[in-house]
Each structure stands twice: as structure tokens, then as C-alpha cells.
Amino acid sequence: MAIIPDRDRNDLKRDLRKNLKNEVTIKFFGQGSSLLAVPGRECRYCPQTQDLMEEMTGLSPKLHLEVYNFYTDTEARDKLGVERIPAIVLGDNGSSRLKFYGIPLGPELYALADSVKTISRGVSPLSMESRKKLRKVKKPVHIQVFVTPN
Amino acid sequence: MARLAHAIALENPNITADVIEVEEFPNLAQRYMVRSVPKTVLGNIGPMSGIAPPIQFVGAVTEAQFVEKVLEEGMEEPEGGTK
């Protein structure tokens, strides 16, 4: 069963087809396809989040999905700095600076789509003043935004 | 705030941005004392530290305000200082 409601899917599809320029790969980390639940490794929303990412990337030929197993693809996990699952990883030029932990439903799905568009187009939504200021950041800054699904 | 955080992170390789759905990660929400959302935190704290991260705010802020907070965190001299 589709996770993205029909109306949202049509809106999103139109938006992505219109606004994507370069190809973008979304990396998804879950617990793999094993049907066995290993104690301590339960991930309630992993299958649904993977389905959602498959649906989303299916909306545009410029979107691609790579699926990783958090527990066995340890090299990719550690390289990209994935700390928990479900995790959605994005970045420009192969980086992994943007992550979404959890299932992005409702407004968060649109926020994720906006980040995808920004990467694809290479055009920042920020003002020139903000962009100039951000160039001055010289040491690592880790931003965490806590949200709820609705 | 999620959009803004991601847009800000794309501007500078020194910046990373995580968006975290609190209901799926209650331990993290507890560690960062998330009582209402959106809550934004700059910096990390360890699971056992009990120390509040240096910069945090609840609710929406403007782009300019968010950028100032990122600068506050990211422009400190890395040498010789303790945080």
C-alpha cells in the first residue's frame, strides 16, 4: 500500500519533475530485509521508511536510492556517520552532511524534498547575506533539529 | 527549521545537520530535554554527560537569527580554548 497519499504524490511528482536538475542519490539505512527480529535491533519504522523512500525516488528519473543495512554495511555506516536507524542520508558532491532520522511523514517529507531540490539545482534558498556569513564558519558545527511527524 | 538547517549545512563543509523524529528516538529526546518541537540544538552531548549543549532554542527563528547562532558556535578559535 502506498504511503504517500495520492494527492501529495501528484504534487510531489510535478514539483520534482519541474525542479530537479542534476541527479541525486538518497542513501537509506535500515535493518535489511531479514524477517527475523533480533532482540535489541528492532526498528519499527525501518520497513515503512524504506518503502517511503522507494516511492519518493520513483517519482523522478533523476532520483536514485541506495539501501544499506546498518548492521552489516558497517564501512558505509561509519564513513557516512550514521548513528541510528531509520536514517536517510543526503549531501552535495557525495557528502553526507544532511541526515533525517526517523520516517519523514507529512510536512517533513516536503522539507526533505526541498533539500533534494536544493542539492539537485545547486541553488541555495538562503539570502546572499546569510551565505556570506556562513562562509566564516571555520570549526565543525553540528545542528540537530527535533521534530514530530505532524 | 528542518529546511533551514539543511540549507545552512549545504553552505559550508564544516556544518552538518540532522533532523530527528523525536517519537522514534525517545532516549535522544530525553538526553536533549526535548519538551516541545521544533527544538534545535547546536553541538553534541554524550549520553552520560548531563551537560546542556551550548546553544539551543525552541520554536521557529528567522534565517538571520539561525545563521547568527551557527556563527556563534562555529567561529570560535579551535586552539587553546575549552568549551
Rounded mean pLDDT of chain A is 92
User: Most extensive interface, residues per chain?
Assistant: A-B, 47 and 47 residues
N/C terminus separation of chain B: 25 Å
User: What's the alpha carbon Rg of chain A, rounded to whole Å?
Assistant: 16 Å
| Elements of chain B, N to C (H/E) | HEHEEH
Largest sheet of chain A: 4 strands, mixed
Q: Could you list the spans of chain B in which at least 5 consecutive residues all have pLDDT below 50?
A: none
Mean pLDDT of chain B: 84
Classify the secondary structure makeup of chain B into a structural class.
Answer: alpha+beta
Sheet with the most strands of chain B?
A: 2 strands, antiparallel
Task: Tally the helices of chain B.
Answer: 3
As a percent range, the share of helical residues of chain A equals 25-40%
Structural shape of chain B = globular
Structural class by SSE content of chain A: alpha+beta
As a whole number of angstroms, the C-alpha radius of gyration of chain B is: 13 Å
How does the overall form of chain A come out from the CA principal axes?
globular
Q: Total number of β-strand segments of chain B? A: 3
Characteristics:
heterodimer; A: 150 residues; alpha+beta; four-stranded mixed sheet; 37% helix; B: 83 residues; two-stranded antiparallel sheet; 3 strands
Question: What does it look like?
Answer:
The complex is a heterodimer of chains A (150) and B (83). With 150 residues, chain A is α+β, with helices and mostly antiparallel strands. In chain A, α2 links the parallel β1 and β2. Chain B is α+β, with helices and mostly antiparallel strands and 83 residues long. Chain B is built from three helices and three strands; from the N terminus they run αβαββα. Chains A and B meet through β4, α4, α5 and β5 of A and α1, β1, β2 and α3 of B. β4 of chain A pairs parallel with β1 of chain B.
